[in-house]
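[PROTEIN RECORD]
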Amino acid sequence: MAIDFSASYPAPPDAVLALLTDEAFLRDRAAALGGQAEEVTVAGPVSTVRLAAPTAGIPTVFARFVGSSVSVVERTTWTPDGAGHRGALDVQAEVFGRTVQVTGERLLTPAEGGTRSTVTGTAKVDAPLIGRQAEGAVSELVAVVLRREDELLRRRLG
């Protein structure tokens, strides 16, 4: 299931990247999502966040299987990309022995007045019969996460 989200920020790509790779920001982001950051590491261009993410708001058909939260590991590896930055995204969770994975990339490119951030990717759920429906739910959840992250970035960047 495809993921596509874009936003603009009133700061240069380096400033946006500095926030996206700041340990305190990543912890605040988890809290803004209603989650609990269990581990946050930033080692050079790689940030890894392990969090307990709430499942409130997921479709009822899945809610009874996952409980009130699920453990999620999000890893982003950043590389320079011209005057901007490219982040390879890898988000994984295990639910009843089934893998939920979101892969994609985030581009931070210079734009008039700041930075254009574009996130593209796909959601995959290894679950026969309900996989496509679950992938749709995961894609919707990713959109919610990106909107909340966008709000937090805007507040921090002014």
Notes: The radius of gyration is 16 Å. The first strand starts at residue 2 and ends at 9.
